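pasting for the record
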Amino acid sequence: MQEFLPNLRFDTNGLIPAIVQDTDSKEVLMMAYMNAESLRLTLERGETYFWSRSRSELWHKGETSGNIQKVDEILFDCDADTLLIRVKPMGPACHTGERTCFYRSLEVA
């Protein structure tokens, strides 16, 4: 199944981290995991699909909320073990309703 992605390095569970970034604002929206099937669907359909580790199933971002993410570009890092997916979000990325999943911060001394 991974022969169409010969340069990518999936972990021992068959997953690769995917950082999702807003194409226009450059804001990091979320981080999720993909397997070969979710990446294939994302490439074919132009919307993000991920692998849910907690539910052990594929999920289409926005399938229930309507907050889909239209993919503009998929990049991978120098080690080929992390993806950066640039998207046009059609609503909040976070299940809490926040625009990004990264809306909380820690104090730095």
